[in-house]
């Protein structure tokens, strides 16, 4: 039986960033949490940054990520919704890494 999930890896990476209050991560830490390769994480972070969903800042050996929650969802079925709506629903503030 083929396995599938409800959320894309892009959504999983974004939720991972949102759940961490400090916003500081390495690609390795994100890959361990999301369950994909570091290279896949790097590509997704590039996609999110290029589309304006996140900003990336160097902070020592880690990067710090700032999410731009006002950015719109990309699928036409979610027209008029911002990613904040998804994050509010799924990024539980008490989840700790």
Description:
- This protein has 97 residues and is of the alpha+beta class.
- The protein has a single domain, classed as Winged helix-like DNA-binding domain superfamily/Winged helix DNA-binding domain (Arc Repressor Mutant, subunit A).
- It has helices at residues 9-19, 27-34, 38-50, 83-90; strands at residues 24-25, 54-59, 62-67.
- The chain has a 3-stranded antiparallel beta sheet.
- α1 crosses α3.
- The longest helix is centred in the middle third of the chain and has 13 residues, at 38-50.
- The chain is globular.
- The relative contact order is 0.18.
- The model has no long low-confidence stretch (mean pLDDT 89).
Give a quick rundown of the structure.
This protein has 97 residues and is an alpha+beta fold. It has helices spanning 9-19, 27-34, 38-50, 83-90; strands spanning 24-25, 54-59, 62-67.
Tag the structure with descriptive keywords.
alpha+beta, 3-stranded antiparallel β-sheet, 97 residues, Arc Repressor Mutant, subunit A
């Amino acid at each position: 039986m083929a396995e599938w999930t409800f959320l894309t890896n892009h959504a999983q990476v974004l939720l991972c960033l949102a759940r961490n209050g400090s916003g500081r991560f390495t690609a390795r830490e994100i890959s361990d949490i999301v369950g994909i390769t570091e290279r896949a994480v790097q590509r997704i972070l590039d996609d999110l940054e290029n589309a304006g969903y996140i900003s990336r800042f160097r902070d020592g050996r880690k990067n710090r990520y700032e999410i731009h929650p006002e950015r719109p969802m990309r699928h036409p079925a979610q027209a008029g919704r911002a990613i904040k709506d998804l994050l509010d629903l799924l990024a539980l503030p008490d989840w700790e890494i």
